[in-house]
Amino acid sequence: MATDPAQACRYLTSVEQIPQLSDQEKRRLAEITRRFAFRSSEYYLSLIDWNDPADPIRRIIIPHVQELDEWGRMDPSDEQAYTVLPGLEHKYHSTALLLVSRVCEGICRYCFRKRVFIQSEPPCVQDVPAAVRYIAEHDEITNVLLTGGDPLALATSKLDDLIRQLRQIDHVQIIRIGTRAPAFNPYRITNDAGLLQMIERYSTAQKRIYVMTHFIHPRELTDVAIDAIGRLQNAGAITANQTPLIRGVNDDPETLAALLAQLSFIGNVPYYVFQCRPAVGNRAYTVPVEEGYDIVEDAKSRVSGLAKRVRYVMSHATGKIEIVGKGAGHVYFKYHRAADDADSGRLLVLQSNPTACWLDDYLEVTRDYPSDLPYRTYGPE
Predict the structure, then answer these.
(1) pLDDT for the residue numbered 363
(2) H helices within the chain, ranges in order?
(3) ∠ at Cα 121 (186, 35), nearest 5°?
(4) For the chain, which residues score pLDDT lower than 70?
(5) pLDDT digits (tens, 9 = 90+) for 26-49
(6) Would you say the pTM of this structure is higher than 0.90?
(7) Burial 57-67 (b: 16+ CB within 10 A, else e)
(8) How far is CA 314 from CA 61, 307, 321, 324, in A?
């Protein structure tokens, strides 16, 4: 494992730069990287066991030929429908989302926002004053989520300026920073005193900054990554983790349970396990919903209550939907948060479809339940 902090600033943007790959592999992967971008820190590449072709860290970051399989959409959660200004989404009543960067410390192969890295005009914030003004004019917005790309790929001074402006809006209570940096390049945090000072300045007892980390395999929780999380916590940030369920990475209960347990040990609350979004290129990384439910429930059965608070959800175009149960030929979904507030909390009872990877794959709701059950029809009548 890389331990030299100087390596934190070195990035590779071409598979040609990876000495562990053969010339034949590089030629084969070139077709993929012409379509989908590649980027990694040397630190993260150092976590790979190059003698293991099925190494999970390798699967996360190194392109795979199956990414060229025809499947999925460029905007699988229909984020464009909720975009009110370039880079500003207002899908949920109390939450605004700002796409603040088109750069990540590394690009996950299963990324659901591939369009950020391949469009000539990426959907990131172009007019910060206009975005801040919109948030200020909508006092229902109590949460602002900074995402991208990765907000920590920005210079600390730029991030500080944005958060300073958001902190001047009285009704913005929570600022969330969604980041993969603690996994891809924890030195971004441990080597930047200014970043930690910014967290300390703006994460107050009344209005916290949340750092939403993205660890998906236990081997990403290295000593330096854990140190980075501890420093964020000591600076006053609340940390929580969300992970997608990815085929070949964490799709067995033992591995997922180990991840959930270790996250709870370091106080990085397991928050969501996400169904992999059906983005272009993601078929090989996707676990069917019902198989995923079994994996998540098995993993939760192996850990304490502090680790099993995690919810298994999908970020669908219509809202954040929790997969809450299955049995007797049916699957049970619940709107954890809906784009239409009237749908929040609604239960969906759907016929089992073991190959389904997304809500759209389920065709209809069964009708043999009491008429007062709060279910909602989805799909064709």
Answers:
(1) 58
(2) 23-35, 42-45, 56-61, 114-118, 128-137, 156-167, 181-184, 187-190, 193-202, 223-234, 253-265, 289-301
(3) 70
(4) 1-9, 119-122, 363-381
(5) 999 999 999 999 999 999 999 999
(6) yes
(7) bbbbbbbbeeb
(8) 22, 19, 5, 11
